[in-house]
Amino acid sequence: MYANSDSELLAFIKNPVKHIQYIKNHVGNTTRTTKLLIKLPFFRKYIHSTDVMTLFEVFLIKLAEDAEKEMQQLPPKIVGFAEELKSVCIEELRSYFNISSGAINYIGPLWKMHNEDRYGAKMGYHSNRIMEVCNLSEGNMLSIVKSSSLWSLFFLSEMYFLIKNKYMVLSMDSHGFIIDKSFDMEKQSPSYWVSEMSEFHARISDALVIKNFSESIAHLDYISPSQLSGIIDYFLDKAYSIHVGYLNSDIRKSPLYNLMRDAVGFALLIEVKCHNQPRRIEKQWINKQRLFMDENLEYMNSIINENTDSRFGTASAFIAAESIYYKRGDLFFKHGLKKFIGKILHEYKGKDRNFAGTYGKIPFEKEYILSYINKIVQCKACGL
């Protein structure tokens, strides 16, 4: 969708406050007829599409002015996000942003839960965009959502892109602008929606797995390799689609694969030990666990110590060094894990750097599907 797009338009989407000049350079003038029709709500539906776009661009420019003021008033970075604030944030968002229920008019428990998830997905996605631009964290979620012009501008910047590329259609009625899916978007919207919702639910699932692991080791002075191994397998699967059960012996012996395992385990221990303030843990506690190969721990430390760029979205915004401590940053775990391991792999000088090519040759899909079918057959044979 974004391939071969105008670079200035993409810059506007990334930071619509900073790059609002793109809209100013493209906004046209409305006709005399439009200037008359806009004053008569009933007749706004007759405004030509070109002029509707012009009016929308004028609206974005005014919204950007208000958004810039709100951005300047955002509080400094707040560490941590209380899960109970999520519903408060969603209610705040609902005060000015509405997700249409379309043809569904039954408002029951199941629909309310589904609608809550949709708001949560939208809120998280666009708020994260703002966090990255403003170098804030999830602790600023409520103040970001309360900044209605800022949040709306980031949401509408993507809508503008979709309109320009004919994925959405812009029109007007007596109440204001209408943005609806085009025929092309109708064909893609199911996969787009599934992707958005699956990411939201995956984050909830990951948080639950981490919470359960955290509770299981809460009172332990030492953690055994077997306790850590299962959750490492889980996140290798979820973050990298590395299904441990389908790895051959060559890959299991690979130094790079074992470095990845140690990096995931290292990040997990920091995650579960840094839930409360201050979000840091003594390096000595990690060392005494003796869970990671010495050379791997030394290598990870060198990467952490060398990278001091803690902007939101960088590896150091996930794990950083602070004197005798490891400090947990603001990125969501799986996103931060990808940044951290990405940095490790980028800097790695080992001989088996391309072990992923070997992994890619494993006939995972075929073996997985056959295994799945065999389990179904076995269940039916047992009368289940």
Your description of this structure?
The protein is mostly helical and 384 residues long. The protein contains 17 helices and five strands. The protein has helices at residues 7-14, 21-26, 32-37, 49-73, 85-94, 109-134, 141-146, 148-164, 183-217, 225-240, 249-252, 255-273, 283-289, 294-306, 333-347, 355-360, 364-381; strands spanning 168-173, 176-181, 280-282, 319-322, 325-328. It has a three-stranded antiparallel beta sheet. The two termini are 45 Å apart. Mean pLDDT is 79; it is low at 101-114 and 358-365.
**Element pattern in H and E:** HHHHHHHHEEHHHHEHHEEHHH
Cα shape:
elongated
Q: What is the number of helices?
A: 17
Q: Which stretches are poorly predicted, pLDDT < 50 over at least 5 residues?
A: 101-114, 358-365
Q: What percentage of the residues does DSSP assign to strands (E)? A: 5-15%
Mean pLDDT: 79
**Residue share in helix:** 55-70%
| Count of DSSP strands | 5
What is the topology, as strand order, of the major beta sheet? 3-5-4
Determine Rg (CA atoms, Å). 25 Å
Q: What about the largest sheet?
A: 3 strands, antiparallel
* SSE class: mainly alpha
Distance from first to last alpha carbon: 45 Å
Write a compact overview of the structure shown:
The protein has 384 residues and is mainly alpha-helical. It is 62% helix and 6% strand.
Features:
mainly alpha; 62% helix; 3-stranded antiparallel beta sheet; 17 helices
